[in-house]
Design goal:
GO molecular function, one term (chain B): transmembrane transporter activity
CATH class of chain A: Alpha Beta
Helix content of chain A: 25-40%
Order of helices and strands of chain A: EEEHEEHEHHHEHEHEEHHEE
Helix content of chain B: over 70%
Mean pLDDT of chain B: 83
Shape of chain B: globular
CATH architecture of chain A: 3-Layer(aba) Sandwich
Low-confidence stretches of chain B: none
Low-confidence stretches of chain A: none
CATH superfamily of chain B: ABC transporter involved in vitamin B12 uptake, BtuC
Number of helices of chain A: 9
GO biological process, one term (chain B): siderophore-iron import into cell
CATH architecture of chain B: Orthogonal Bundle
Distance between the termini of chain A: 53 Å
Number of strands of chain B: 0
Distance between the termini of chain B: 20 Å
Number of helices of chain B: 14
Strand content of chain A: 25-35%
Pfam families (chain B): FecCD
Largest interface: A-B, 34 and 23 residues
Family (chain B): Belongs to the binding-protein-dependent transport system permease family. FecCD subfamily.
Number of strands of chain A: 12
CATH topology of chain B: ABC transporter involved in vitamin B12 uptake, BtuC
Oligomer: heterodimer
Structural class of chain A: alpha/beta
Largest sheet of chain A: 6 strands, mixed
Number of domains of chain B: 1
Main location (chain B): membrane
CATH superfamily of chain A: P-loop containing nucleotide triphosphate hydrolases
Largest sheet of chain B: none
Chain lengths: 267, 333
């Protein structure tokens, strides 16, 4: 069993994020539930990836702050933040020839230092990450020889090796077919079951409903709804977000909302 | 992994052996009258004042400088390629060397004498060249296309080159002083030049060692590197400074030599795999190997006169350039 320290809380306080003069996230305050899987959903261009970048300190806020256990992340040293919060960027690319285990070893960098080079513990963590992601057999394969799902699991394994209580994933399944998506989502659920807080940006509302404990629905840089999928997803919300009409039914096996008869909204 | 490491150890041993051999041969052959046998005798300690002068005062400094220049250009090429994520980024092609040469020519025309401040001026020129090139990569569309970056660099290099020639055309004294230098050559360098260059090389070496880990992470992309706790912007500035120190120093000693920074990392990557930390070690032996080999051919090919070394590195570099472009794996670096 992998050791994960008790989850620190991640929240934003009146957060403003912009690109140049264009304000993408405006005065957003949200608290992400610890130990759960949160999905940020919303239409293209609603600011969901920007919000995730802000949470990971890749995007400096104009105003407001991202708070990690109450402390402004802008004040944390990079390595310390990287020991608490791991990020998988969208469409991450590795140099050609890099093997799965070499990629995962990068995850140990925040734990290494001048006096602390590669250790037996690092090796053990890498092996554990390989195991958690089900990639033992592929450890020495170059990434380009893997399927899309395996490759994405390898990247997630790198963030597992970071041993952070918080994990941010930017559209982890966007380029994957259904089978490979399930591979990734099941891994994400497995990680959350060990006590990690996972935040992912998803463009697919259906999988967000199925795999997330908590949804944050974003439109135009504002939160329009947040809560458990079964509690907040309504035809009205779906319409507000995506301009489509649908009928909602309940998945008989999981109890999560399912979108049926999705069609363009007639205005 | 252990297989790869063991394999690389063998390769490294072979490379170092080759380097020792080439350095030795570099002491033995030359364009002049002192042939290999006389040189060998002088090395062994016979009383042959002509031969020992040639071997110890001319060829030994030349060999050492060749080693330093090869290391500097090879490592600078690998660094520049790592931060621009472009396997074609090469100091000679992108105008970094041309910037250094231009700066030196400019100070000469303005009245300075060649030897005194050549290194720092060249480094300053290289720094400006480097910044120009990297700001071009920031322009939309250019940074994402490796070939366009090289085109921009070539245009920049050409511009600086012609400005340099123009200045020398108008200033006879400067032209005499650096005529040989401006085409790139290891001939007639003294150990003092090398001694002046060593501090810069040391500083760059320390910086590279300190940056090794984040530099490797940068290969995963800026966002992933930030996610691992690094500061890509800071790393980029440090790399630019190192490249300027190394290329400026190398150019001050040997003139602008193109393609070494392209070929050496290319070969090193093929041997070392994708991790820049291993690639840099290989560059340290492959760089001197290439420069010394080119210099030796430059000495003997048209003896008793000499070819400029840049001609030979280009002969060897142009096919590599074509190969890299044709391999179609450019964006994956």
């Amino acid at each position: 069993m992998m050791q994960v320290e008790p989850s620190p809380t991640l929240a934003t306080d009146a957060l403003d994020l912009s690109y140049g003069t264009r304000r993408v996230i405006a005065s957003l305050g949200v608290s992400l539930p610890s130990g759960q899987v949160t999905a940020i959903v919303g239409p293209n261009g609603c600011g969901k990836s920007t919000l995730l970048s802000g949470l990971a300190r890749l995007h400096k806020p104009d105003k407001g702050a991202v708070l990690l256990s109450g402390e402004d992340i802008q004040r944390l040293p990079g390595r310390e933040l990287a020991r608490k919060l791991a990020l998988l960027p969208q469409e991450a690319v590795a140099p050609e020839g890099l093997t799965v285990s070499e990629l995962i070893r990068f995850g140990r960098q925040p734990h290494q230092g001048w006096l602390r080079q590669w250790s037996a513990e690092d090796q053990q963590v890498v092996e554990h990450a390989l195991h958690a992601a089900g990639l033992e057999a592929l450890a020495e394969r170059p990434l380009e020889a893997l399927s899309g799902g395996q490759r994405q699991r390898a990247w997630i394994a790198m963030t597992i090796a970071q041993q952070t209580p918080l994990l941010l994933l930017d559209e982890p399944t966007s380029a994957l077919d259904l089978g490979h998506q399930i591979e990734v989502f099941e891994l994400v659920r497995h990680l959350a079951s060990q006590g990690r807080t996972v935040v992912m940006v998803l463009h697919d509302l259906a999988s967000a409903c199925r795999y997330a404990d908590y949804l944050i629905a974003l439109n135009d840089g504002q939160i329009v709804a947040q809560g458990a999928p079964a509690a907040i997803v309504t035809p009205a919300l779906v319409r507000a977000l995506y301009q489509v009409d649908c009928t909602l039914i309940t998945d008989p096996d999981t109890g999560s909302p399912l979108l049926a008869n999705v069609r363009r909204a007639c205005s | 992994m252990p297989i790869r490491v063991a394999h690389q150890r063998t390769q490294m041993t072979l490379l170092l052996t080759a380097l020792v051999a080439v350095s030795l041969v570099s002491l033995l052959v030359g364009a002049g009258e002192v042939g290999p046998l006389r040189s060998l005798a002088a090395l062994a300690g016979t009383q042959d004042s002509d031969a020992s002068f040639v071997v110890w005062q001319l060829r030994a400094p030349r060999t050492l400088i060749g080693i330093a220049v090869g290391m500097a250009l090879g490592v600078a090429g690998a660094l520049l390629q790592a931060v621009s994520r472009n396997p074609l980024a090469e100091p000679g092609l992108l105008g970094v060397s041309a910037g250094a040469a231009f700066a030196v020519a400019l100070t000469l025309v303005m009245g300075a004498s060649a030897a005194t401040l050549r290194i720092s001026v060249a480094q300053l020129g290289a720094l400006v060249g480097c910044l120009c090139v990297l700001s071009v990569t920031r322009v939309r569309g250019v940074g994402s296309d490796p070939v366009r970056l090289v085109l921009a660099g070539a245009a920049f290099s050409g511009l600086l080159g012609s400005l340099t020639s123009l200045m020398l055309l108008y200033d006879q004294r400067a032209a005499d002083e650096i005529r040989f230098w401006v085409i790139g050559s290891l001939a007639g360098r003294r150990l003092d030049d090398l001694a002046a260059m060593l501090p810069s090389m040391l500083v760059a070496a320390v910086a590279v060692v300190l940056m090794a880990r984040p530099l490797a992470a940068l290969a995963l992309g800026e966002r992933a590197a930030s996610g691992l706790g690094h500061h890509p912007g800071l790393i980029r500035w440090c790399v630019v400074a190192c490249v300027a120190l190394l290329v400026g120093g190398a150019t001050a000693m040997a003139g602008p030599i193109a393609f070494v920074g392209l070929v050496v990392p290319f070969v090193a990557r093929a041997m070392a795999g994708p991790d820049i930390r291993r690639t840099l070690w290989f560059c340290l032996s492959i760089g001197p190997l290439m420069v010394l080999a080119a210099d030796m051919i430059a000495r003997v090919a048209v003896a008793p006169s000499e070819l400029p070394i840049g001609v030979l590195t280009a002969l060897c570099g142009a096919p590599v350039l074509v190969a890299v472009v044709r391999a179609r794996r450019l964006p994956s670096l």
